[in-house]
Amino acid sequence: METDVIEIKYALDTFYFLMCGALVMWMAAGFTMLESGLVRSKNTTEILTKNVALYAVSCVMYLLMGYTIMYGGSDGGILPDSWFGNSIANASAEEVLAGAAADAGDYTYYSGASDFFFQVVFVATAMSIVSGAVAERMKLWSFLAFAVVMTGVIYPLQGMWKWGGGFLDAAGFLDFAGSGVVHMTGAAAALAAVLLLGARKGKYRADGSVSPIPGANMPMAALGMFILWVGWFGFNGGSELKVSDISEANAVADIFVNTNAAACGGLIAALITARFMFGKADLTMAINGALAGLVAITAEPLTPGPMLSTLIGIIGGTLVVFSVVTFDKLKIDDPVGAISVHGVVGIWGLLAVCFSNPDATLSAQLMGIGVIFAWVFGASLVVWFILKAVVGIRVSEEDEYEGVDISECGMEAYPEFVSGTK
Amino acid sequence: MKMITAVIKPFKLDDVREALADIGVQGLTVTEVKGFGRQKGHTELYRGAEYVVDFLPKVKAEVAVTDDMVDGTVEAIVNAAQTGKIGDGKIFISELNEIIRIRTGETGDDAV
């Protein structure tokens, strides 16, 4: 290839990677809006604070150690070569061109810094999943302390096992964009938290039946869903890692179409399932359904056609309604349905890879699910347990009743009656 | 002078306001309130679980009138707010000791 062509392809692939990363970063806004819509108004400022802070904490921790653990190389495939340090490195023009001359098929075709940027926003996504499940009752600073460990060690280590070329990758476990590595991981950490945290006060009546706590702002929740949906094109589309030739461009386009199809299938399925089960068109279930469709297709958005993608989404969207109701009955109180959407449907997505990708084996998929869940759930449980014993993870009953906006942040989201302006 | 307090269905507020304007009532104060009477509450559904709404939204309209206006005002409110279904609300009439118009200092019937 001519030098100019190689340089332009490098620029295009880097540009594509950065733009997809920026789309995924925007998912932080989606989670923030979704979660703020599904909590009560007295807990709005706190959930917003949690979401903006976790994004920044995730990025700093991933820079300090996470990226090095995940992509700095590993010896034996279980532990990383090194735990700390900055391993972001851009190749020089000479190195890229020399690599291309030596092997036209395998050379550095995008910037190393763009790779970091794309990966770091995924970590924030995993952490955002936790914040919704523990909403309205967790101490802000305990949550952020957990975020430090989660994004610095727990997430990157299992990420290395798969995407960093570790033992799960070697075993043939397939997870294209992260139904397991990102979504089930977030859900497993959330489940550990909720088990130690307990349900919100008032969620269960004395006889044990569910007393629902409706979210305060449905427009916010719907907007959050669409922002997440947009971000997901970067999440799955960017995970193709390349766009600069005809076959890669086709693959990227297929991924966009499949991702969108699965979300639509999930939304319709959840809406109809909720209508038949409850007699009403439950918007929150439709929103969960769209997100379930997106999670389900994330493990393999390339090989299924749009029809199979829609079906994978439909099954995810149906599953999520039953899952939300079941977790509620088990007294696992998850205000936004994060454990159902990202955990239960994440597992479904990983299994669904077997339907379309001939390289997938059920045994490798089950092994990946088991290993990632066991590690993330176990490690998270230990961290949450230590936090609970040392500083506590739950606000006082009085603070919970008054709303954590005042007790944690000292400000209301909608201050109608404030002190005088003079 | 009497204070007439009507608790009505919110969607009937416009009708009540027009009916009162037609008979010459010059002022009305309304508050969004919640409450229950014989209608009691009703159940709603959120994410598959039922919950009881004990207090239903109502509008409380307060009108101060001279004694000779009481019957006409009550009649206007009843006609405008009635649907015949349970939950139409109630009218309370109480004695009013004094009224003062802040702008002019007028009192009694002159201030109504």
Task: Sum up the structure in keywords.
heterodimer; A: about 425 residues; mainly alpha; two-stranded antiparallel sheet; 15 helices; B: about 110 residues; alpha+beta; four-stranded antiparallel sheet; 6 strands; elongated
Explain what the structure shows.
- The complex is a heterodimer of chains A (422) and B (112).
- Helices cover 70% and strands 1% of the residues of chain A.
- Chain A is an all-alpha fold and 422 residues long.
- In chain A, strands 1-2 form a two-stranded antiparallel ribbon.
- In chain A, a hairpin with a 3-residue loop joins β1 (74-75) and β2 (79-80).
- Chain A is globular, with a radius of gyration of 22 Å.
- With 112 residues, chain B is α+β, with helices and mostly antiparallel strands.
- Chain B is built from two helices and six strands; from the N terminus they run βαββββαβ.
- In chain B, the strands form two sheets. Chain B has a four-stranded antiparallel β-sheet, covered by helices on one side.
- The radius of gyration of chain B is 17 Å and the shape is elongated.
- The relative contact order of chain B is 0.32.
- The chains are: A mainly alpha (422), B alpha+beta (112).
- The A-B interface holds A 209-214, 274, 277-280, 282, 284-285, 321, 324-325, 328, 337 and B 45-51.
